Fold this sequence. Notes:
Strand order of the largest sheet: 2-4-6-7
Strand content: 15-25%
Number of domains: 2
Order of helices and strands: EEEEEEHEHHH
Number of strands: 7
Helix content: 25-40%
Domain Receptor L-domain: 1-76
Protein name: Receptor L-domain domain-containing protein
InterPro entries: Rcpt_L-dom (IPR000494), Rcpt_L-dom_sf (IPR036941)
Number of helices: 4
Radius of gyration: 19 Å
Low-confidence stretches: 100-106, 145-151
Amino acid sequence: xxxxxxxxxxxxxxxxxxxxxxxxxxxxxxxxxxxxxxxxxxxxxxxxxxxxxxxxxxxxxxxxxxxxxxxxxxxxxxxxxxxxxxxxxxxxxxxxxxxxxxxxxxxxxxxxxxxxxxxxxxxxxxxxxxxxxxxxxxxxxxxxxxxxxxxxxxxxxxxxxxxxxxxxxxx
Length: 171
């Protein structure tokens, strides 16, 4: 009955043949700077990860799925896990091929807003909504649309921050 994991899930050196106990899992989130949400390593009998309900992964470090000699990762599995976190797969019977990090900082914000709403109920205070919108605007201005740091000078950054401070002060 697990639907969300906030932190890290490590499946290492087990006798599992599938992830069937986690079939309801919808969200893996680890917003820590160096944390990954998922490590699957050295499971000799693992054949399937079966995470068909997984909608969001939030991880600042790559997800590692390695050295599981009987695990065949389908393209659906790879796409589902790779929605907003980089996936590194090696040493499995079938690895993910050609996947790169698909996310941008806006997708991270979407996941964070969902987590926020889950903890604080369905309604959201308009002030909080405005703050989230300001953060999304800031992320867009600093990081652009392609997950690459834009060429923003310190002066431009401080100008944007000053503008956001003025807007936030009026809330």
